[in-house]
Amino acid sequence: MDTSALFVQKPGHISGQPVHRKKPAGLSQRSRRLQTSQGRQERLVVAAIGSEGKDKAKLKLGENLDDRIMSGEFSDVGSTKERLTRPLRKLLAQDPIGPGRVLALALARVGQRWRTAAARRMPVARGDIREIIGQPVFIPLFKLYQVYGGIFKLSFGPKNFVVVSDPQITKQILLTNAGAYSKGLLSEILDFVMGTGLIPADGQIWRSRRRAIVPSLHKKYIAAMVELFGDCALRGTAVLERAAAEGKAVEMENFFSRFALDIIGKAVFNYEFDSLTTDDPVIQAVYTTLREAEYRSTAFIPYWNIKPLLYLVPRQRRCLEALQIISDTLDELIAKCKRLVEEEDEEFVEEFLSQADPSILHFLVASGEEITSKQLRDDLMTLLIAGHETTAAVLTWTFSCIADRPDVVARIREEVDRVIGDRKPGIEDIRNLRFTARCIAESQRLYPQPPVLIRRSLEPDTLAGFEIQEGQDIFIATWNLHRSPQLWDRPDEFDPDRFGPLEGPAPNEVTEDFKCLPFGGGKRKCIGDQFAIFESVTALAMLVRRFDFAFAPDAPPVSMTTGATIHTTNGLWLCPKPRADLEEVRQREAAAAQGGNSAAAVAHEEPAAAGAASSAGGCPLQTAAAAAAAVSASFWAAWGWADGSWM
Ligand code: HEM
């Protein structure tokens, strides 16, 4: 089935469903067009989706929080007892005779003690959960952060969460006292899909799985993956060329979602989703499961814990069916891989990379480690989800950031023309695509994926002088850290130069001292950070060198909605147009490359042909694996990957 229609359409239609071009009623009052200091309006609207009626209800709830903040209710963080007795104290102080004034003085002294005691307690924002839901959850958290600062408690009836938006407190939780915290709520939410995979796992299981999986992402593997990224970018190029030729807009979130799925399928378990050009039940099953994971992470009542409802509620039944399809597919892939490992009889050495199948699954099976099929399935499912949604979101928001920035596009293009021309980038080239990489980093600052990290304290701790009880749920509000006006100059502006000279180190939680966490930090830091950066840089470079992108004229405004990552509400509709000087650049490249690895030749074929061309001669990764061996140590060190330091 040809899937291009799913994301290449006239902007008024998404997945075949007509979309009202007019903004929904009430949207305009709610729209927050973020004004940058240069006066440029970011096409960003904070909105909730839903029918008009639903929308109004949410609007009221969201505004309610704004009203309460405006009223100063949240700013008064002192003692309630002191506040309540203040009018009485004032009245008594007016007593002309004397006893009233003595009492007023006594009350003032007690009030002072109450205030001092209150200052030692963490500020608490009490409210109704409905004031938070119905909008991207990090938006109200940001508003409350502006009132309370780096640490406060968010309390809804019996439930409460500590919200952290301070770099040093974040560092303590993630790095210096990381042993005192678990994934808590996140493990509970993700159990149905990831089981004891790396993201939700804690304790001994986490330690042993991390020790087993991290070595599979070794240098040769990453270098081989860069080749795969280039092949997939060529297929994407072909899809965009067709859209450009037909003058159609492309829904880029869908496009990047499929792009990233194709890559992660091959990279993790050698499965050809080929979702940029086809659709099949496994792809549908993956998306059903992903959406369910997001639904569960934002739903208020976990009704799915009541077993019979799993079979009675249609969406839960669909999810069970999807999980079964994925589980069967993974079982087949595992069995196939085991057969291959037995047949090839290759010695398992450090940096093992199978020529026939360089996937992480192959590494894990070849390592000979005894693990249950269930654990292996959990590991693969975790890597599939962790490496897919995040990268797709990063690329989507990067393109949203650059679509109205011809100055940035020109700089990326100049760098790409100079470094790789029309070739696919090799591993060494990525080192020199430094401005392109900074654009990815800046987009990750503006749109952190995920926008909130979740933890639970395993033992009492003290954060910024406040006592934390065992079992306390904590949100680390990455969005707040990344957009804080106290921590960043012009925080809402897309400025890839803000991290200093391009020759300097790539920005991360260490260089930015935990005010920027593109991949988390400490012992639970992302294991796929280099994979993801190289993938995103390759895609950005290879698409920008070919196309100009402009916002589709009649498309809905770009707005955010919460999932595990930040999604667009109505898609990101862009019109790709071949860059004006494309022919000239091609001729120049053809003359220079003379029989080299010309991307132009491949990308002009149909996607299926591009895929076939990329795998001509067996595995397209063979040559890359060989080339990887030659990559210098200084290259890896430049990416913060000195031998051993990345584990
Ligand atoms: C741009 C893309 C990506 C982003 C923004 C991202 C972000 C993150 C973040 C912030 C964490 C820390 C979560 C926490 O502390 O609670 C994390 C963990 C993780 N990521 Fe990524 N990630 C990306 C790509 C990938 C890829 C490609 C893979 C695998 C190939 C991957 C695998 C993982 C795993 C397994 C963990 C859990 C590590 C542990 O708990 O030990 N990620 N990621």
TrEMBL record:
The keyword Transmembrane does not apply. Keywords: Heme, Iron, Metal-binding, Monooxygenase, Oxidoreductase. InterPro entries: Cyt_P450 (IPR001128), Cyt_P450_CS (IPR017972), Cyt_P450_E_grp-I (IPR002401), Cyt_P450_sf (IPR036396), Cytochrome_P450_Monoox (IPR050196). GO terms for molecular function: beta-carotene 3-hydroxylase activity; heme binding; iron ion binding; oxidoreductase activity, acting on paired donors, with incorporation or reduction of molecular oxygen. Its cofactor is heme. Residues 13-40 are annotated as: Disordered. PROSITE patterns: CYTOCHROME_P450. SUPFAM superfamilies: Cytochrome P450. One of its GO terms (biological process) is xanthophyll biosynthetic process. Transmembrane segments: none annotated. GO terms for cellular component: chloroplast. This is Carotenoid hydroxylase. It comes from Parachlorella kessleri (Green alga). The lineage of its organism: Eukaryota, Viridiplantae, Chlorophyta, core chlorophytes, Trebouxiophyceae.
